[in-house]
Amino acid sequence: MPMSKYMRLIVMFDLPTGTAGERRAANQFRHFLLHDGYYMMQFSIYVRLCNGQEAATKHRGRLLRELPEEGSVRTLLVTERQFEAMEILCGEKIPDLDEPQKESKLLVF
């Protein structure tokens, strides 16, 4: 099948986790995504490769059946070409403040 037929279904969610029940619902939703073939692209952003529009529609339907009662879930369907054109922007790594810093000079008393 040509690459132009492949699409990516991107799921972005923000679910409450204040109570044990909310955490359980959020974990169940995340496990559903993993078992349905999604992979984690970033925290709360999961992606699945779909073989065309029909497969994407099928997986959106599965997603609708598994929606948690509370929270926000969004989907975005993009072509493989659009997904490949995504830019990954990374800032400088911030040093961990809890980790002791190495001294560059030797102190002699």
TrEMBL record:
Cofactor or coenzyme needed: Mg(2+)
Binding residue positions for Mg(2+): 14
Keyword terms of this UniProt record: Antiviral defense, Endonuclease, Hydrolase, Magnesium, Metal-binding, Nuclease
InterPro entries per record: CRISPR_associated_Cas2, Virulence_VapD/CRISPR_Cas2
A Gene Ontology biological process term: defense response to virus
EC number: 3.1.-.-
GO molecular function: hydrolase activity; metal ion binding; RNA endonuclease activity
Cross-referenced SUPFAM superfamilies: TTP0101/SSO1404-like
Alphabetical list of Pfam families matching this protein: CRISPR_Cas2
Coiled coil: none
Subunit field text: Homodimer, forms a heterotetramer with a Cas1 homodimer.
Family: Belongs to the CRISPR-associated endoribonuclease Cas2 protein family.
Protein function: CRISPR (clustered regularly interspaced short palindromic repeat), is an adaptive immune system that provides protection against mobile genetic elements (viruses, transposable elements and conjugative plasmids). CRISPR clusters contain sequences complementary to antecedent mobile elements and target invading nucleic acids. CRISPR clusters are transcribed and processed into CRISPR RNA (crRNA). Functions as a ssRNA-specific endoribonuclease. Involved in the integration of spacer DNA into the CRISPR cassette.
Name listed for the protein in its UniProt record: CRISPR-associated endoribonuclease Cas2
Organism: Dialister invisus
